[in-house]
Specification:
heterodimer; A: alpha/beta; ABC transporter transmembrane region fold; Rossmann fold; six-stranded mixed beta sheet; 20 helices; 10 strands; 59% helix; elongated; B: alpha/beta; three-stranded antiparallel beta sheet; 9 strands; 63% helix; membrane (chain A); ATP-binding (chain A); transmembrane (chain A)
Chain lengths: 588, 558
């Protein structure tokens, strides 16, 4: 019955759980012990009371009160202690599984390509990812342990009943297994459509809400607010309809637990009474058996809630599985290293279209730079500058055309060597939770404190950092919020300085920096870039902004097409090697 | 952030409006408890009839049938309780969402947009959903957790007052016991929540920076670090939990001990070992029934403890929503009933506008927009261009002075971030022109220079746009938004930097389209730096420091 329910989607995650098989068994064992003690407590108490009453009536001494009395106490203590240990142990397990889950998912994410990662910028994607992970966090404690424990208890109960009345045991056991099947798989089947619809509508409601909020101005001006709100509320109604159906299915499951267990108890009572009247069992056992059956309700009660919304877990798993499928296309099997020194760079007819886009992000872009040249590439946002940066750092692969570094096809370059030799300062600066030193050591884990200070000094951050009481140990905070935009950019520059790249790509390197800072920073940058090839990506070159230093070439991008690739005449830094491309390149 | 008592009050207010459904849930819960009581009594009676009165099994068939019908009744009552609780919750959530949306509309585009869209959207969706458990389960259970144990203990007292005393001793006072449950459950939740939040925070921090980690070839180390951090937080959170879990162990302990004590007491009483109190009156029936009732006495409290985290989640969500709801709309917004003189479309008379943190950002100033004129407003950024447009549009009200609007004036708005939604090209155009025909949509697209693109699209107007208009370039997106202006019958178009961030080509097309709009006889007010747009204007005004002055003659500084 597995794949009608989409259990296949859960398989990779179950495999992940299996790494901690022993812990899972112990946890389930403790849960089972807690429930078993509860069953034992009620059943033994019933036996004891009945035996006492019958003994009392017959005024027949000989009932040893110490054994059942001790048993009752033992069950009571076991139940308490096992519950405490179970909660503690299973909480620990869940947190360990959480670590596994995040670790393995992170490994998958870290192999995603640039286009998929770019989607992260929508906070929606992260929200969804978090929600999906949270859903899967409950896999063991909600969906795996309870049904296994319930089944084991049904088995034990059947064996226990069989000690006295094998026929009864067979009947009740079969009935309870059927009930178990329904309460887990049956409920999952019943709630599947509604729980999947719920996830889908909730997501739709979220994106409609974001759209509504972003469009408040247009909607109010055009007097359409009410109309769009109706669309949103219609989606809410669909969500609520799904939730209502889901709640009814879950309620049905919960009600069934009581009904089924009660009926099993009643059948047991009837058959045990018949056996008692034929002197096959004692009166006390006749009472004990139905009470034991009654007490199993607690184990089954855990099932309907978790299983009716199996669709939610399944959807979460499917979405996370899809990430795995989107992993970066592996570069060709060859891994050639890049030599030291400035890198030579060439793009030949490079084209790229993002999935679902109507236009080419880059269209037949050709350019080449000799080692040590500096190109400034201008264009409005969305013209394709960042796409070129992503292509050169192999975060994206081109649909057409050929990219080479030092005349080696980009796809054949060794991963480690490429990362070592090509550096990118992106528009978005990623700073991580951790200290200043942690953030710098991402570039060079082996760097000494002294070298880190040199890097800060180079990026004109040393004065600022020295004024901090914790110095290099100063926490940078989530996403680097403690730093201003300009400081974050300079910290990222310091990170680049710690490496020795042959090609440096700087996307809007001076954004958010004031003139005084730039006056000391730009000459240092100029010096550091000597002996490296550099690519500056800037919005526009005008009189207001500080020009990138030592530029030898310039080019302009309009909607993914390169125009005006030319030697830059204003600055006469001529190494005599730069090649100039023909000025064609427009072929819309 | 609003305080916890406010949040509690606000939630109670919303719950009170669904009193009917909540009462039904409580009534059904009580009925289920009553059915349980009868069912257990019947069970004890049947046993006693068999063992003590030596009745024939067949003669007890009616009792068996009655017991079976009790089971069915109880199942129905449980189902009703859950469904009624859910219905109350659905209705509360729908109302809260409507309240939030109405409030956002009242706040208007300027104050409403002061909050990040993602955050407000999560309030509208996830936070509202977080009220579910509190309304559907916790509230009814609060009453049931008091009423059911009381009913059971009275029943036990009637059978044997000493046994009832044991139960009461096990739970000295129900309110005290509930407080214990609450504190413990709240603590468990807080700790668990904190651990998971810290973990997610760390994880998301690394995911956000993945590109950088890839570029520095540090993903392997980062993966190990993610695992190590998770393990670190696990160890941190376990220590406080060792204590916090004691609360659930205490509940379990009392439940177990009560059963054990009752069982031993009843057993010894039946054996005649206890020579005092009411134990000599005990029979198999009363003894067995007392034993069966003992776990039921604790069951509602255990359910309440299970639902306790729903309360914390709902209060947290309510506090966030109240912060948004506490923001009052500007009193002057939507109070433009005055008609301007001189056939003007809209006029501002001696208006001022202040920003909560930046102080006065505009005025005092006067301004009049006449039909058909094209007015360019220029000036340094932060000088008040956008605020002036917001005031003209009525998105904010003036702090002093008057805004006069010609009755029945139709407005249209465009700013530098084109508003696009997930859906087809046609859906996007019809957002503000629901009744436009396909032909009209095509004509509007042609006027903004998108006819060629439209012709190339295989599905034409039905081509999907993707989330936030992904698939379009920045210039194309802005022109789609511009096409909406052609579809509207607005007399006055307000445009805030419509050519910002566009390349030269798109820029030219937007300017040409605006010229067409102006030639259709509509009035345009354009905040811009762009020389071409300023040349388009019949009148050009300069705004700096919130003060407006006329630029002399044609504005053609090229």
């Amino acid at each position: 019955m597995g794949d009608g329910l989409g259990i296949g989607a859960l398989r990779p995650w179950l495999r992940l759980l299996a790494r901690r098989r022993r812990r899972l068994w112990v946890g389930a064992g403790l849960l089972g012990l807690t429930l078993l003690a509860a069953i034992g407590l009620l059943a033994l108490s019933g036996w004891f009371i009945t035996a006492s009453a019958l003994t009392g009536m017959a005024i027949r001494a000989g009932l040893d009160v110490h054994v059942p009395g001790g048993g009752i106490r033992a069950f009571a203590v076991t139940r308490t202690v096992a519950r405490y240990l179970e909660r503690l142990y299973n909480h620990d397990t869940v947190l360990r599984l959480l670590a596994d889950l995040r670790g393995s998912l992170f490994a998958v994410l870290s192999r995603l390509d640039g286009a998929t990662l770019a989607k992260q910028r929508s906070s929606d994607w992260l929200t969804r990812l978090t929600a999906d992970i949270d859903t899967l966090d409950g896999l063991y404690l909600r969906l795996l342990a309870p049904p296994l424990v319930a089944l084991a208890l049904i088995g034990s109960l059947t064996a226990f009943l069989a000690l006295w009345l094998p026929t009864l045991a067979g009947l009740v056991g079969a009935g309870l297994v059927l009930a178990w099947l329904w309460l887990s798989f049956g409920q999952a089947w019943l709630g599947m459509a509604a729980s999947r619809a719920q996830v889908e509508h909730r997501q739709r409601l979220r994106s409609l809400s974001v759209e509504h909020l972003q469009g408040l101005a247009e909607l109010e001006a055009h007097d359409c607010t009410a109309r769009h709100r109706h669309r949103l509320l219609a989606c809410e109604r669909r969500l609520h309809a799904a939730q209502r159906r889901l709640a009814r299915c879950t309620a049905l499951g919960s009600a069934l637990v009581g009904l089924v267990v009660g009926l099993a108890m009643l059948a047991t009572l009837w058959l045990a009474a018949a056996a008692w009247q034929h002197d096959a069992v004692s009166g006390a056992v006749m009472v004990m058996l139905p009470l034991a059956v009654l007490a199993i309700g607690e184990a089954l009660a855990l099932l309907p809630n978790a299983f009716t919304s199996l669709g939610t877990t399944r959807t979460a798993a499917e979405r996370l599985n899809a990430l795995e499928a989107a992993e970066r296309r592996a570069p060709s099997g060859r891994s050639r290293p890049l030599a030291d020194g400035p890198l030579e760079l060439s793009l030949e007819g490079v084209g790229l279209r993002y999935p679902g886009a109507w236009h080419m992000a880059l269209d037949a872009v050709s350019l080449s730079l000799k080692g040590g040249s500096r190109l400034v590439l201008t264009g409005t946002s969305g013209a394709g500058k960042s796409t070129i940066a992503a292509l050169l750092t192999r975060q994206l692969l081109p649909d057409t055309g050929d990219i080479r570094l030092n005349d080696i096809p980009l796809a054949e370059i060794d991963e480690g060597s490429l990362r070592e030799r090509v550096a990118l300062l992106g528009q978005r600066i990623d700073l991580f939770e951790g200290s200043l030193a942690d953030n710098l050591r991402i570039a060079d884990p082996a760097a000494t404190d002294e070298r880190l200070w040199q890097a800060l000094d180079w990026a004109t951050l040393a004065d600022w950092a020295e004024a901090l009481s914790a110095g290099l140990a100063t926490p940078v905070g989530e996403g680097g919020h403690a730093l201003s935009g300009g400081q974050a950019r300079r910290l990222a520059l310091a990170r680049l300085w710690l490496r020795d790249p042959g090609l440096v790509i700087l996307d809007e390197p001076f954004a958010g920096l004031d003139r005084a800072t730039l006056a000391s920073l730009v000459p240092r940058l100029d010096g550091w870039l000597r002996g490296r090839t550099a690519l500056f990506l800037v919005h526009q070159l005008d009189d207001d902004s500080v020009a990138p230093p030592g530029v030898t070439h310039r080019a302009h991008l309009v909607e993914g097409e390169l125009t005006d690739f030319a030697r830059y005449c204003a600055i006469g830094q001529d190494d005599g090697k730069a090649t100039t491309m023909p000025n064609e390149v427009r072929n819309g | 952030m609003a305080g916890a008592p406010d949040a509690q009050r606000w939630l109670s207010h919303h719950a009170a409006r669904q009193r009917g459904w909540l009462l039904l849930a409580v009534a059904a819960g009580l009925a289920a408890s009553a059915a349980t009581l009868v069912q257990l009594a019947l069970l004890a009676w049947i046993v006693s009839q068999l063992l003590v009165a030596n009745a024939e099994l067949a003669s007890l068939t009616p009792a068996f049938l009655a017991l079976a019908s009790c089971l069915v009744l109880r199942a129905l009552a449980q189902w009703t309780q859950e469904v009624a609780g859910q219905e109350a919750s659905l209705r509360v959530r729908a109302r809260v969402r409507a309240e939030l949306l109405a409030h956002l509309a009242a706040l208007g585009p300027v104050r409403g947009a002061a909050y990040p869209a993602g955050g407000v959207a999560s309030q509208l969706v996830e936070q509202v959903e977080a009220l579910d458990g509190f309304i559907a389960r916790f509230l009814p259970q609060c009453i049931l957790a008091v009423a059911t144990p009381l009913a059971i203990v009275s029943c036990v007292a009637w059978l044997d007052w000493l046994a009832a005393l044991f139960l009461l001793l096990a739970a000295p006072m129900i309110p005290l016991f509930m407080a214990l449950v609450g504190v413990g459950a709240e603590r468990v939740n807080r700790e668990q929540f904190a651990a998971v939040t810290r973990l997610s925070g760390h994880f998301l921090d690394r995911v956000r920076g993945l590109t950088t980690l890839q570029l520095f070839d540090r993903t392997t180390e980062a993966t190990r670090e993610v695992e190590a951090a998770a393990d670190h937080y696990r160890r941190l959170s376990l220590r406080p939990l060792r204590l916090a879990f004691l609360s659930s162990a205490v509940l379990e302990f009392f439940a177990s001990v009560a059963i054990a004590v009752v069982a031993v007491y009843v057993g010894f009483g039946l054996l005649g070992y206890i020579g005092y109190g009411p134990s000599s009156e005990l029979t198999l029936f009363s003894g067995l029934l007392i034993l069966l009732l003992a776990p039921e006495f604790f069951q509602p409290l255990r359910s309440l403890a299970q639902h306790y985290h729903d309360r914390a989640a709902a209060l947290g969500a309510a506090r966030g929503m109240l912060t948004l709801l506490a923001e009052r709309p500007h009193p002057q917004r939507h109070r433009a009933s005055l008609t301007p003189g001189d056939s003007a479309l809209v006029s501002l008379v001696d208006v001022t506008l202040a920003h909560p943190r930046r102080g006065r950002v505009l005025g005092p100033l006067d301004m009049t927009v006449l039909p058909g004129e094209t007015l360019a407003i220029t000036g340094p950024s932060g000088g008040g261009k956008s605020s002036l447009l917001h005031l003209l549009a009525g998105f904010v009200g003036p702090d002093s002075g008057r805004r006069c609007v010609r009755p029945g004036l139709r407005l249209a708005w465009l700013d530098q971030r084109p508003w696009l939604v997930q859906g087809s090209l046609a859906d996007n155009l019809r957002l503000t022109a629901p009744h436009a025909s396909d032909g009209e949509l095509e004509a509007a697209l042609a006027k903004v220079g998108l006819a060629e693109l439209l012709a190339r699209l295989p599905n034409g107007l039905d081509t999907p746009l993707g989330e936030r208009g992904s698939g379009l370039s920045g210039g194309q997106a802005q022109r789609v938004a511009l096409a909406r202006l052609f579809l509207s019958e607005a007399d006055l178009l307000l445009l805030d930097e419509p050519t910002a961030h566009l390349d030269e080509m798109s820029e030219g097309q937007v300017v040409a389209a605006l010229q067409t709009l102006a030639s259709e006889g509509r009035a345009l007010v354009i905040a811009t730096h762009h020389p071409a747009l300023m040349r388009l204007a019949s009148r050009c005004q300069y705004i700096a420091g919130g003060r407006l002055r006329e630029l002399p003659g044609e504005a053609n500084d090229g």
